[in-house]
Structure formats: C-alpha cells, structure tokens
Design brief:
It is a single chain. This protein has one helix and no strands. It is mostly loops and 48 residues long.
C-alpha cells in the first residue's frame, strides 16, 4: 500500500479548476484519515 500525504508537493501541484461539483467531506469517507489535531475551532482542517 502506498501512502500519499495531502501535503505532498505532488498533490499540491495538481491544478484546481471549478467544475460545479459539490465538495465531499473526506473526514467521513472510507479509509481516508485526517489528523484531528490540525482542525480549527470550526472543524476545518489546515493543510500546510
């Protein structure tokens, strides 16, 4: 199994463009793990 962090430069280099799709909260989907220590008081997660 390969683990790729969201903070990996290869991930950060992926261009983002609006497509009209709704966002998905990855904290509630499958085997994706989010470090709760990086959440602000509103529950948003900081990505360095």
């Amino acid at each position: 199994m390969t683990v790729v962090l969201m903070s990996d430069p290869q991930v950060a280099a992926i261009p983002v463009r609006e497509c009209g799709e709704r966002l998905t909260d990855v904290r509630t989907q499958g085997d994706i793990r989010v470090d709760p220590r990086r959440q602000d008081p509103d529950g948003s997660t900081e990505v360095p």
